[in-house]
Hints:
The complex is a heterodimer of chains A (344) and B (307).
Chain A: H1 4-7, H2 17-27, H3 43-49, H4 51-73, E1 80-81, H5 87-90, E2 92-93, H6 97-104, H7 106-126, H8 128-139, H9 143-154, H10 161-172, H11 177-184, H12 199-224, H13 228-236, H14 241-267, H15 273-283, H16 285-288, H17 291-301, H18 305-332
Antiparallel strand pairs in A: 1-2
Helix pairs in contact in A: 6-18, 7-12, 8-12, 9-12, 12-14, 14-18, 17-18
Chain B: H1 2-8, H2 28-57, H3 60-66, H4 79-84, H5 88-121, H6 127-136, H7 143-152, H8 160-163, H9 170-181, H10 185-193, H11 198-209, H12 211-227, H13 230-235, H14 244-253, H15 258-261, H16 270-304
Amino acid sequence: MNSTTEQAPALPEARRVPARAGGKAAGSGPKKRKGSKPPQQSFRSRLRRDKQMLLMMVPGVAFLLLFFYIPILGNVIAFQDYQPYLGIGDSLWVGWQNFVDLFGNPDFVHAFWNTLYLAAWQLVFLFPVPLVLALIVDSLISTRVRRIFQSIAYLPHFLSWVLVIAFFQQMLGGAGFVNNLLRDWGMDPIPFMTNPETFPVMVVVQMIWKDAGWAMIIFLAALASIDASLYEAAAADGAGRWRRMWHITLPGLRPVIVLLLILRIGDILSVGFEQFILQRDAVGAGAAEVLDTFTYYTGVVGGGWSSGAAAGLAKGVVSALLIYGANKLAHRFGEDGIFAKQVR
Amino acid sequence: MATTLFARKPRELTYNPKRPVWKEKPSALYQTVKAVVLIVFSLSILTPILLVVSTSLADTEQLVKAGGFVLWPERPTLEAYATIFKGPMVLQSLGVSMLVTAVGTILALFVTITMAYATSRTVLFGRPVILAVLFTLLFAPGLIPSFLMIRQLGLLDSLWSLILPGIFGAFNFVVMRSFFMNIPGELIESARIDGANDWQILWRIVMPLSKAVIAVVGLFYAVGFWNSFFNALLYINDHSKWPIQLLLRNFVVQGSGAADQLGITTTPPPQSIQMAVVVVALVPILMVYPFLQKHFAKGVITGAVKG
């Protein structure tokens, strides 16, 4: 329901807990004061006082229940031989059988490794691009050039994947603009969009095109928050351009880099669902089959609800473990990660 | 006061247009590399857009001569657009997309605003509960269970299946909520003393103060609804209920004989018809982009870096 970039920044909220817990209570006046423990009102009188507020939560809570929590519970069909006409209640329980079948299924194993392979490409080649762009933009002296570039670079983020792929096809497709030019010049056309071997490159290029500019924003904000006097002092001490970048800029960006890396890692198995499903026909399932497309084609298209759900659940569990592991690692390096270390 | 403060500061000058005194002038090589990167990146974004728009406007003669694509229409014509709007499909799918976007955005704003306001002030459930809920939103319930839920609700092939799953976004919720939390509690308390109830406070005090953030979040939702294609692929079979993105996918990306299925006998070449459909899906985004761009950076930073 939400694209990954949209969801990502939701996290740091959690980091705010310790800092804001006191402040907020003071803001809401006599209602509640943490720490100093005023005489607690009874549950019932608090319920009466907050009645309208609770009423306001009803639509949101209903949404979360219907489209979030109940479907999460619906994952139990991964342990069933789910039959639509029987429903969850009457379908047979098969334990781990679906998972055993899945890992014995070469298509699934292929999708699994392909996902990791494509994810590695993305992590290595996609992640640094916005950072480099942000460094360049931040070093621009002219605010006008800066603003123009930002306006152009952010735009593709708001285009749908369908449009993005359509653009790429028109530019690079077999009958596209570039290949037409090549033919006019008497050269062989290059199958950019349909060659399974170069597909990972294409995927990364598309992602850079669409989202690198947008991902730049967070780095730019972090860069702007680095104290300029640090640079000045370092320059006075004789530090050159690169030394300043190494000793001031990069350490200043470290928390943001770590946070974004963790979020990326947690999301890594999703690699970019719409992007793949749109191109799977063109490059073939060999190159473009990832866990999500496997889930879709097995479950929704093929009617193998239980194996589809099992594949989805396997992916979810691995993702959660990856987030947890990356967060642990961040703490090891002395960073906050998603959570400050102690959340009280 | 602030102006006099700044006026006395000589350091202000260093921001622009001159570089700070301590900063060395970059080498010519470095300058060139920088310029090349920025220009190539910008052109790579602008060229496809120009290509698509120009091709949709080009006339047959020029298209045939150029072999399918033009970067500039010599004799611009709206023939392709006239053709796609003759058949029912494009108009229908535009209608579907507009309806879904309008209804979806309004509902989404209602759900997000009420939820954000209630959680920014209410105390019956403390922060830990809300944070725990936010944390779970990191995970997705998965494709199959979501699909089964929609089917269970009987929403397959109904436009509600395109609307309801999108009416609450964790990111938008966080942005909205952190904005509400920064509204001074005194304002709300004084309204309460004057006898306003929570709904009145929200409507009369909080929302007028939050017009900007509501506009941004609303635009985010609208763009999301307009752009979503996968929900339609999953839930909608009936051709007359396809949103524009799905039409685009089936006719342009998959290229399955656009003209035939649109029920048109082609006078303009198929290329420009396809491009016209692309432009139709693109234009609304281009139209709201200036508003989005003006505000979104602020919104994202509130949601992400400030903490």
